[in-house]
Hints:
Elements: H1 2-20, E1 26-29, E2 35-40, E3 46-53, H2 67-74, H3 87-93, E4 97-102, E5 107-114, H4 118-130, H5 136-155, H6 162-170, H7 184-189, H8 192-202, E6 208-214, H9 218-229, E7 252-258, E8 265-272, H10 278-291, H11 297-305, E9 309-318, E10 323-331, H12 337-353, H13 358-375, H14 379-393, H15 398-408, H16 411-421, E11 427-434
Parallel strand pairs: 2-6, 7-11
Antiparallel strand pairs: 1-2, 3-5, 3-6, 4-5, 8-10, 8-11, 9-10
Helix pairs in contact: 4-9, 10-16, 12-16, 13-15
Amino acid sequence: MKKMYYLSFLGLLFSASLYAQQVDFQEYDLSNGMHVVLHQDNSAPIVTTSVMYHVGAKDENPERTGFAHFFEHLLFEGTENIERGEWFKIVSSNGGTNNANTTQDRTYYYEVFPSNNLELGLWMESERLLHPVINQIGVDTQNEVVKEEKRLRYDNSPYGQWTGEVFKNLFKEHPYRWTTIGSLDHLDAASLEEFQAFNKKFYVPNNAVLVVAGDIEIEKTKELIEAYFGSIPRGEDIVREAIVEKPITSEIEVTFEDPNIQIPAVFTVYRTPAMTTRDTRVLDMISSILSDGKSSRLYKKLVDDEKKAMQVAAFNYSLEDYGAYIVLALPLGDNTLDDLVDEMNEEIVKLQTELISEKELQKLRNKFENQFVNANASVEGIANSLARYYMLYDDINLINTEIEIYESITKEEIRDVAKKYLNTNQRLVLDYLPKLEKEQN
Length: 441
C-alpha cells in the first residue's frame, strides 16, 4: 500500500512538473503578413529575438544550389545602417550572443540579449530584412567562407559526405536530393543579380515569423515591433510546387569511397513521411528502442554482447515534405558490412513481428517526456520551438501538446509503423568505404 501511495505521489509531482512547463504565448499578424509570436518570462533578465524564414535548400534552383545556406552567412555582412564587419561587434559589445542555421526547409536567425537591449535586437533583425547590403565584395568574401566550411566539414572530414550520398540516391525528383551546403560551382557561377533576386523573393515579411521571448512587457514589445517591422513592404506571395517521389519498390545498392576514413560503414536508409505525421513520431520512438543508450537493442547486441560493431545508430531524419530513417554501423574486427546489415535486419524484423514490453513502452514515454521538458527549459529553446512549430507544423501549440502524441503511441503502432516503412525492398543500402590508393607500377 505504501508503494502505491509513493507512486501516486510521484505521478502528482510529475504532472505538476509538466504543468509548470506550459508555454504561454500570444500570436498575431502584422499588416504586411509577418507573423509575430510573443512569450513573456520575467524570471531572468534576458530576451531572445529571432526570425525564421520559410526558405531552405529545397527552395533553390537546381542549377544554383547552396543559396539558402549562403544567405545564412551573407546576411551578417552588414546593412545600410550597420557597417560591414560590425554586426558581431555590436552584439558582443552589448552583452549578447547571436547565430543562424539553415536546413532543407527553413533559415533561422536569433540574438540573445540582456532584456534592456530588446529594442536593439528588434532593430538589427529589421535591418537584416529591410536594408541588407548585397554587393560583390560581400558575396566574394562569404564565398571563401563557405568554401572553407565545405572543405572542413564535408570534403576533408571523416564520414563527412554520407548525407550527400544518402539523399541524392534516396530522392530522384525532390530538392532534398542535394545537400544544404550545395555546390560550390553553382555559387561561383552565380551573378550578383541572382543573389539579389533570391533575397527579394524569400526575405520578405510574409515569408517569416518573428519570435520575441523572455523578459518583456507585451504591450511595449508590440509597439516596438510595429515601429521596426510594420512599415516593411509585403513581398510577392511564394508559390511552391508539391513534388512527389515515386515509391521505392526494390533495394537500392550504392557504394561510396571516402579518402578520409580507414574503417568502413554501412547505412540502411528508408524514405519516410513528412515531419507533421503521427507515423513520424512513432519512428522517433523506434529510433530510441534501437539505439538510444547502452541498453538499446542494437547497441547492446552489436557493440556489447556480440562485439561486431564499434558504433551503431538509428535515427529519424524528419523534414517538412519527407524524411529519411537511417540505421548505420561501423564494423569491429573481421566482421563485414553484410554481417552488420543482417544483424540490423534481424532487430527490425523483431519490431515488425513482436510487441515491445510494457516496461519498454514506459521507458520510452519517460525519455520523451524528459526531452520535452528539456527542449523548453530555456528562453532560447522556447523561441526556436515556437518558430518551428508555427512555420513547419502549422500548429504552434504543439509546444505544449506534442508530448501528448508521444504518450498516446501504442505498442501496436510501433509494430505496424516498423512494418509499414522499414522493409528491405523500400530502402537504400550505402556501403561507405575507405578509398584505397592505387598501386604504383
